[in-house]
Amino acid sequence: QVQLVESGGGLVQAGGSLRLSCAASGGYIEGYHMKWFRQAPGKEREFVAAHSTSGGYYYTDSTRARFDISRDNAKNTVYLQIHTLKPEDTAVYYCAADTGPIWTIRDSGTVIVWGQGTQVTVSS
Question: In this structure, are residues 34 and 50 in contact, taking their beta carbons and an 8 Å threshold?
Fold first, then answer.
């Protein structure tokens, strides 16, 4: 089964940008919907973005403008570019792999593999 390791988090100032990476091993991401979630302190984990096996891009109304998900199947890696960071983006960001139906693309319940998470802290 594929394993996922995130990297690229850190402390950044508001207004800056960050690119998170999610490297896969033990399998190929090509056969998975790849997703990013985040969990802020005291809050539930929430969906951020997804890239489906058929090439579709999925966001929420609050992430669509500043977040970009992409994947490089040759490198077996998924990326999340975050633009114009805000303090409310502070969270642990998790990468996830999923093979569920497309109508669950924004759900966490069908995720079969989670990464360990990477901390993003945005200072004002």
Answer: yes
* Separation of alpha carbons 20 and 120, rounded Å: 9
Indicate the residue type of 38. Answer: R
* Structure tokens belonging to residue 1: 């089964």
Per the CB < 8 A criterion, the answer to whether 123 and 96 are in contact is no
> Tell me: the pLDDT tens digits for 67-120?
999 999 999 999 999 999 999 999 999 999 999 999 999 999 999 999 999 999
Rg for the chain, CA atoms, rounded: 13
CA distance 17 to 58: 20
Centre a 10 Å sphere on the Cβ of residue 14 and count the other Cβ atoms it contains.
13
